[in-house]
Structures are given as structure tokens and as C-alpha cells.
């Protein structure tokens, strides 16, 4: 197995965290497809590491919902079902609405500046970026909101939930109409955070996530692929 754009992992990153980061990026980019086997020996050879950090990285990615470990079969990239999408977006609606409400109260000026920059980048890649670019830019914006709460527990949980979303979201680009809708929703959330209006930020975030869930389900088939007209 040879990972696209990768040779050996740099010596300073030959840890389970470094291997997990590489594999996570390969899944997000679509280089590693749903159902694709992830043999430890082949991954170790491709990345220039021993099998131990590979095995530990696969367990990490399993906890994030990106990899499935099956006895006597080994690891594979997880295939996402429509029920997975319903469940993960339902969790996001609850967790991210709460995070937005908290962030409106706790955010600093630096947090707000970082969110403004993240939104500007998201708008740029929304016009010309790849599906992976769009997904990662969206992830950065949403992650900054959970970071602004100052809650390490919430940041950890949201990191896992958002990673699972990106593994599917990175398989299809938003069309112009959907991009425009998401942009306006993000701007509204930003303004609520700027005004430190917790109830409004919470409501707008919930509406945004529910809107994203409806779009995801409308462009999905049970093979785990996006269906975009």
C-alpha cells in the first residue's frame, strides 16, 4: 500500500498520533475509500514506521468512527450508512447548539478574530476549493466554536463527532446554492457570537446543523457515496 502524497512519516512524528493524523487526512481526502482494507504491515511499510504505532493509530481512528476493526478481518475504512448520518447530525445539533451558546458567553476577542478568519477561508474555498478543502475549512470553523468554550471535555467530544462528519462530507462538493445558504447561516452565527447573544447563537447553530443533515441525507446512497445532481 502506498499512500498518495506520502513517503515515510518524519522521524519526529513516528508516533501513533502522527500515523493517525496521516491516515485521517487520507480518509478525509478520499484517497482511502469506505470499505478499503487497512493492513497493518502494508501501512507500516508505506509510512516507514513499526506496526505498533499503526495498530495504536487504528484504535484511535476506530474511536472516532473512521475505522472499523473486525476480528479475523482486520481494519477497514468505515462505510457510513444513512442511519449513521441521522445519529451523528442529531448529536451535532445538541452538542454544537450548546457549544455556540457557551461560546457566546466565554469567547474572547482572539476567538472571534480566529472565527472571522476561518469563515473568510471557508467562503474562499466554497467557491473554488475541492470537496476535501471545503470539508476541512468547515471543520475548522466549527472546531473553533467548541474551542472558544474553554471546555476540554466538550472539545474532545466535538473533535470525535466532527471528524466522523468530515469523513463523509469530504466526498462531495457543495453546489453554489447550498454554499450560499451555509455561508449566510455561518455569518448569522458569527454575529450572534459577536453580540454575545447565547440563545440566538444556540438557535442558529441548531438550525444550521439540521439544514446540513437534510442536505446530506438528500445526497446519499447506502454504499456510502454522495449522490450530487
UniProtKB/TrEMBL annotation:
The keyword rRNA-binding does not apply. Signal peptide: none annotated. Keywords: DNA-binding, Transcription, Transcription regulation. PROSITE patterns: HTH_GNTR (PS50949). Transmembrane segments: none annotated. Residues 13-80 form the HTH gntR-type domain. PANTHER family: GLUCONATE OPERON TRANSCRIPTIONAL REPRESSOR, TRANSCRIPTIONAL REGULATOR, GNTR FAMILY. This is GntR family transcriptional regulator. It comes from Pseudonocardia yuanmonensis.
Amino acid at each position: 500500500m502506498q499512500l498518495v502524497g506520502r513517503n515515510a512519516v518524519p522521524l519526529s512524528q513516528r508516533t501513533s498520533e502522527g500515523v493517525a493524523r496521516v491516515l485521517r487526512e487520507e480518509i478525509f481526502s478520499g484517497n482511502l475509500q469506505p470499505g478499503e482494507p487497512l493492513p497493518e504491515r502494508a501501512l507500516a511499510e508505506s509510512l516507514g514506521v513499526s506496526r505498533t504505532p499503526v495498530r495504536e493509530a487504528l484504535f484511535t481512528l476506530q474511536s472516532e468512527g473512521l475505522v472499523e476493526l473486525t476480528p479475523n478481518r482486520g481494519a477497514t475504512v468505515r462505510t457510513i450508512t444513512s442511519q449513521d448520518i441521522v445519529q451523528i447530525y442529531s448529536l451535532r445539533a445538541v452538542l454544537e447548539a450548546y457549544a455556540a451558546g457557551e461560546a457566546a458567553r466565554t469567547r474572547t476577542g482572539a476567538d472571534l478574530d480566529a472565527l472571522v478568519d476561518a469563515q473568510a477561508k471557508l467562503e474562499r474555498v466554497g467557491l473554488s476549493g475541492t470537496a476535501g478543502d471545503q470539508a476541512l475549512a468547515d471543520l475548522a470553523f466549527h472546531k473553533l466554536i467548541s474551542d472558544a468554550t474553554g471546555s476540554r471535555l466538550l472539545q474532545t467530544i466535538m473533535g470525535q463527532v466532527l471528524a466522523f462528519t468530515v469523513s463523509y462530507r469530504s466526498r462531495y462538493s457543495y453546489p453554489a446554492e447550498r454554499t450560499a445558504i451555509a455561508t449566510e447561516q455561518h455569518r448569522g452565527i458569527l454575529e450572534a457570537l459577536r453580540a454575545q447573544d447565547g440563545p440566538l447563537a444556540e438557535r442558529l447553530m441548531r438550525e444550521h446543523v439540521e439544514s446540513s443533515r437534510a442536505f446530506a441525507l438528500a445526497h446519499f446512497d447506502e454504499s456510502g457515496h454522495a449522490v450530487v445532481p
